[in-house]
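Lecture notes, unit on binding sites. The following record was shown on slide 14. It pairs a sequence with thiamine diphosphate.
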Amino acid sequence: MATSMARSAAMPRSATEHLTRNDRVALLRFMLLMRGLEERAGSLYRQGKVPGSFYDGFGQEAVSAGAAFAMAAEDRLCVLHRDLAAHLVRGVAADRVLGQYMGRAGGVTGGRDGNVHFGDRTVGCVGMVSMLPDMMVVATGMAMAFKLRGERRVALTWMGDGASSRGDWHEAMNWAGVQRLPVVFVLENNQYAYSTPLQKQFAVALVRRAESYGFPGVLVDGNDVEAVFEATRAARQRALEGGGPTLIEATTMRMHGHAAHDDMRYVPRELLAHWEARDPIDLQAARVAELGVDIEALRASVAAEVDRATEAALAMPMPDPSTATEGVFCEGDAEPLGDGRAPWSGFHTTRGAA
Ligand SMILES: Cc1ncc(C[n+]2csc(CCOP(=O)(O)OP(=O)(O)O)c2C)c(N)n1
Ligand SMILES: [Mg+2]
């Protein structure tokens, strides 16, 4: 099977034909909300209100927003530690996210984990497995189940460049290729795995690895939310039509340290300056401004939502210690994952909903 590599330079700078004006604004809003919530969570961390450490996806907002936006309600997502916008696209409320970081009873895991290791199963997201890249195996397994049951839906997982060096990454890629499974792998290449730069991680272009497993690899500008959307939409469509998996390599930059404790002095300043000029939110804001949207009003409305979410999360109680062992192991029959929100207008059109 031929490997197609769509270079970002070849992607149209304007929206794909599959996005309406409202979709393009929604993409910007999800990215702004991710950034606003993570900035707020960082402040709460410095105030000692977020236990453990704190991870963010500053500068990578387009990868999770764009890919999640292309997925249908009945699809299933494995969301990683720099992909907050995916949770938001699926319908997880902002206050539950901040409650999660602060370990509150109203957080997604009810205080079982006060960190990025979460997923709201009621909206089709699997709770994040911290061992990297085990979400690759989980997504592949879900896709195997869809195929065996004859269900028309797709699994998607994100993972980092560093995660691709582990054995389970290759096992998942191989099995997905052999079985032609309906799964989309979104590789978030943010130039570093903790302090290790790309050139010390692998000797080939990551996107080319897909060819070894018999399916296409697509290179996309990870700071262009519409390009990420379009690559994911096409990969999902291929999967639904029985074409099997796709590896999407989204090139981006981790603009903050690995976590709050990391001052990333190992990252050259010039590299950061290069990527700062290519901020994904600035890019989408410029496009959306061209559509006549009041960007400042949009920013103000997102800021107000972050303020409201902060107030609500701070008002959430800590979990009752006597419940600490509840909901840790599965007791009785496992409840199936629910469907999430699929805000893309393309789904609304096909389903006839508003
Ligand atoms: C098997 C395993 N080893 C180490 C870790 C600790 N760890 C968490 S994130 C991370 C960096 C992973 O780099 P990458 O896959 O590139 O993702 P990024 O953090 O850059 O988004 C490490 C080493 C882990 N979670 N799992
Ligand atoms: Mg990385």
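Take-home: The pocket of thiamine diphosphate (ligand 1) is lined by residues 82, 130-132, 160-163, 188, 190, 192-194, 254, 258 (CB under 6 Å).
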